[in-house]
Structure formats: structure tokens, C-alpha cells
Design brief:
By secondary structure, the protein is mainly β. It has one domain. The protein has no helices and 14 strands. The strands form 4 sheets. It has a 6-stranded antiparallel beta sheet, with no helix packed on it. It has a 3-stranded antiparallel beta sheet with strand order 2-11-12, with no helix packed on it. Strands 4-3-10 form a 3-stranded antiparallel beta sheet, with no helix packed on it. β13 and β14 form a beta hairpin. It is elongated and about 60 Å long. The structure holds zinc ion. Zinc ion binds next to loops.
């Protein structure tokens, strides 16, 4: 099992999470590598946890299916559960957000594209449309009369 882990400094907000529902699935974007021949897919690939693709030869299905162009083997990955929320803590703690069952492939890099959500730590203000592509986000919590931010966003793929 592989996991996507997050470390981030949350200031005034907590429960950072991808906006990932059946009506609005989050597209997780990764670099992917074949564990048989070590070929890396030239492009970033996306998968979401609601879309299933058939494996060849009636071997079931998976969220992501990839036939390696180099060794011609078919590999797959499936997201195990809904993403975990990342809580505010000081100092920030590394936490797994998503876990995958990977067969014959590894995700090697995560690209943070898509909408994230967070909640005001005290005010419970709902923040939507959070973009972490630049590794940081700044906003203003009207209820608290204070700036809120997410900075030093670090994504890591590790063994779960
Ligand atoms: Zn291969």
C-alpha cells in the first residue's frame, strides 16, 4: 500500500481536505512509474475514487489502469477510502490523506490540482475553492476579523 501524506502549516483553519464527493469527484494527479521495468509515464495521470475501469481478461476493475508502453504489462491502482482531513497542529504533523492499493505501479509525485476545503479553527467558517497549486493559500475570516492561511504545503508519497 502507498499513501499520499501531507504536511502543512494551517493558521486559523483546520480540517483541510480535498473537495471529493460523488457529485464532484476530486481528480488526483500523479506521476506514475512501472515497478516491472522502471519506465515513468511521460505525462501526469489523473484518477478519482468513483470511476472504475475494467482490467483486461475479466480480472476485475480499478480506479486507474495503465498498460506500460515499454514492458506491455498492465498495472492498476485503487483508492482505498475517502480522503482524511488534515487537522491544524503546532508544529505541523505529517499525516496520510489517501491510501492506494497499487499493482505493478507506483505513484512517484503528486501534483496538487483541484479544489480543497477547510474550516475556521474557532469560527467554523467554511472555506471553499482553496487552491494549493502554489503550495500556499491566504484568505480572511470575516467572523474572526483575522487573516487565515495555509503555507509550507508538502506532499509526499510513502509506504502505508
Ligand atoms: Zn513497464
Amino acid at each position: 500500500m502507498l499513501a499520499l501524506a501531507l504536511t502543512a502549516e494551517l493558521n486559523g483553519v483546520t480540517d483541510l481536505r480535498p473537495n471529493d464527493t460523488e457529485d464532484s469527484p476530486f481528480e488526483y494527479t500523479f506521476k506514475v512509474q512501472c515497478t516491472s521495468c522502471r519506465e515513468t509515464h511521460p505525462n501526469f495521470v489523473t484518477l478519482n475514487r468513483f470511476e472504475m475501469h475494467d482490467l483486461s481478461g475479466s480480472r476485475g476493475d480499478a480506479n486507474f489502469v495503465w498498460k506500460c508502453k515499454n514492458c506491455k504489462r498492465e498495472h492498476s491502482a485503487t483508492i482505498q477510502a475517502a480522503p482524511a482531513s488534515y487537522p491544524q497542529s503546532d508544529p505541523p504533523k505529517k499525516q496520510n490523506i489517501l491510501e492506494f492499493d497499487c499493482r505493478g505501479l507506483e505513484f512517484t509525485e503528486f501534483k496538487s490540482e483541484g479544489e480543497f476545503l477547510a474550516t475556521g479553527a474557532e469560527s467554523k467558517t467554511k472555506f471553499t475553492g482553496i487552491d494549493l497549486a502554489d503550495g500556499e493559500w491566504f484568505d480572511y475570516d470575516e467572523k474572526e476579523g483575522a487573516e487565515v492561511s495555509i503555507t509550507n504545503v508538502k506532499w509526499e508519497i510513502r509506504r502505508a
